[in-house]
Amino acid sequence: MNDNPLEPGSHEPGAVLPEPVRDHLGQQLRGVLPVEADKPRFLGDDSVPEVFEPQIRRLETRLKTHEEGTEAVGQALDQILDAFGVKPEEPGSRGT
Predict the structure, then answer these.
(1) What is the pTM of this model?
(2) Which of the ends of the chain has fewer CB neighbours closer than 10 A, N or C?
C-alpha cells in the first residue's frame, strides 16, 4: 500500500473525510443535483416523479388484477369441490 495520500489506492479502509470537507461537498452536490420534492398523492406515500406515474399506475393495476384473479380462481375451485362433494383439506393437516 502507498504511503502517499495523493496517489490512487492510498486510502485507509474506513477512513472518513473531516466534517467541514463533507459539508462543503454536500453543498456542492445539492447545488448540482436537481431535487424534486413533489407532494405525495396520499399521506405516507413517497413522492414519485411524474415521469414514472404511468408505469406506477400500470403496476398497481397489474397487482390489483392479479389479486382479484387469484381470489376468483380460488372461489371457482371451491365451488367445483362443493359440486363434487369434496371437502378441501385444512392447511397443515396433510401428512398427519
Answers:
(1) 0.43
(2) C
